């Protein structure tokens, strides 16, 4: 009876809510969600940023008395999920080409693919792969896009690992640091997560601004 009730609660989990996911699946859920979000096109809607930050917060034991995660296993699960997912997405794109995206009817997914392609063209492989980690949906579609465009395996692997570690470990540790230093921080969780997501977009916004400034300067000289 208890097992049936536990299974029922897991099936009723809200996949768009970080706290609901963590309550149902714990640390393992973090790895699975990050793998799906970065490696499978069907995972583009999953809350990667807020999941990492909230999970880090819950490692302090101050945000939710009914749920406490362990930091070391969480960091391992986050890193493995993010890195394995990106590599899987790349290999799928390399084998299936653009057919995966062509079959999707999601306007949001196609918009993300367009932005991912623009990133690759504008900033080159290394910078685009790192920056894409911080942009929802784009980090989902850039990996198969890189595979379809035949970005060299060594180049992709090096920079997806770099960006993946900075993103997954950085957001997790940011949540942990805040939860450790601010009492009752869970009362402000939603606005804090919104700020974290906004801050994660700063690298991309900075690159866009720099690119436009350089283009204007080049046009003025021409």
From TrEMBL:
Task: From the record, give the transmembrane residue ranges.
Answer: 21-46, 71-93, 156-176, 188-209
Task: Give a yes or no for keyword Membrane in this entry.
Answer: yes
Q: Which UniProt keywords apply?
A: Cell membrane, Membrane, Transmembrane, Transmembrane helix
State the compartments where it is located.
Cell membrane
Q: Does the keyword Transit peptide apply?
A: no
Q: Name one GO cellular component term.
A: plasma membrane
| UniProt protein name | VTT domain-containing protein
Q: What is the organism field in this record?
A: Streptomyces griseoruber
The uppermost taxa in this organism's lineage are: Bacteria, Bacillati, Actinomycetota, Actinomycetes, Kitasatosporales
């Amino acid at each position: 009876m208890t097992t049936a009730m536990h299974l029922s609660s897991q099936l009723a989990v809200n996949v768009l809510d970080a706290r609901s996911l963590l309550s149902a699946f714990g640390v393992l859920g973090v790895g699975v969600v990050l793998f799906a979000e970065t490696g499978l096109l069907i995972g583009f809607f999953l809350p990667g940023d807020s999941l990492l930050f909230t999970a880090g917060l819950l490692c302090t034991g101050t945000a939710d008395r009914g749920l406490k995660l362990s930091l070391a296993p969480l960091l391992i699960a986050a890193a493995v999920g993010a890195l394995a997912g990106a590599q899987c997405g790349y290999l799928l794109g390399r084998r299936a080409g653009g057919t995966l995206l062509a079959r999707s009817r999601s306007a949001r997914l196609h918009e993300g693919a367009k932005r991912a392609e623009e990133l690759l063209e504008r900033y080159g492989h290394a910078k685009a792969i790192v920056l894409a980690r911080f942009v929802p949906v784009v980090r989902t579609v850039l990996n198969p896009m890189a595979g379809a465009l035949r970005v060299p395996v060594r180049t992709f692997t090096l920079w997806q690992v770099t960006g993946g570690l900075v993103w997954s470990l950085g957001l997790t540790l940011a949540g942990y640091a805040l939860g450790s230093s601010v009492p009752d921080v869970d009362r402000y969780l939603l606005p804090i997560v919104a700020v974290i997501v906004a801050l994660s977009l700063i690298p991309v916004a900075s690159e866009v601004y720099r690119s436009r400034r350089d283009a204007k300067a080049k046009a003025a000289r021409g």
